[in-house]
Please model this.
Amino acid sequence: MSHNSFPGSMLSCARVWALLEKIDAAEADRRRSEGCEHCGGRLHGARYPRKPHALASALRGDVRRFSFCCSECRSRTTPPSVRFFGRRYRVAPVFLAACLMILGGSAPVETASRIWGIPAVTLRRWRRWWRETFPATAAWRWKRGELAVPPDDPPLVVLVRLMRGRSPRSKLLRSLVWLMPWTGSCRIGDGLSPPAESVPVALA
Ligand SMILES: [Zn+2]
Model:
């Protein structure tokens, strides 16, 4: 897949970002209706601001991630998201598109780094996450049967290839929805946190 398939301008489109926010809102509603996973208490909205790195400047205004706080035990619940992949600074579509480029071999890390304006060291860390952490997750082991991934192919590349969609962009956006189980579980307010970019997405 060529790196021209995902120009940065795909995110300059307010319609796409609004669509992603709508998906996040629906997922947040669903999660809220389930109540607190610790005590069953009611969840109150406690959205928190995120700096959406790599998002078009016109869209960077007041961007918040959906999150809840339990009215009883005060635990925080952060639902999965198609806008933010865990604690990573860059917005999820950029994270995915850049990873696809380096995992699919359409560009070396240094080239991808120039194209996306993301440090090569960050891209290598992301690549390691896809190669080592992601395949070991329980959610992936459970879901990989749906895709019948050939053993030597990178899961993300196979996933995007198999997604329905007329354009690379729509395939990428559908992949984001499929990958939602890997994007949540980033708790904040639980004491000291390691640097955001080094935290693999925690999974139940
Ligand atoms: Zn609770």
